[in-house]
Amino acid sequence: MKVIRGAAADEIEIKRFIGWSGNDRWADYCRGQELLLFLFKGSQSLEAVWLILGAGGQGEMPIEGEAVYCHGIFLAGFPQQKYSVQSGELSGYRFSREVFLAAG
Fold it and tell me: pLDDT digit string (tens) for 53-66?
């Protein structure tokens, strides 16, 4: 685990995204997936658990090779496409990992 912004313990617990009608994850969870995560702390009852930002899991972005894939959002001026990512299919945007992380 690499923390880019903020602080985190060596190990954290993250509540998985659960798909709902019309908004499924691009692929099932499996060991070894590389992800860029935008997280927030849950309510007091879930104090130790981190949640993925966005009702549609937009804060969970797969990384494959040197690309980061954004999904579930509309970015004016960027063409949205379908991509094969981590043994699944994602409709969204592909950005260079280096450029994407440098923008933060």
Answer: 888 889 999 999 99
**pTM of the entire predicted model:** 0.83
Q: What is the pLDDT of residues 35-50, one digit of tens each?
A: 999 888 877 655 678 8
Facing residues of 36 across strands?
61
Strands 49-52 and 13-14 come out as: parallel
How is the chain split into domains, by residue range?
13-102
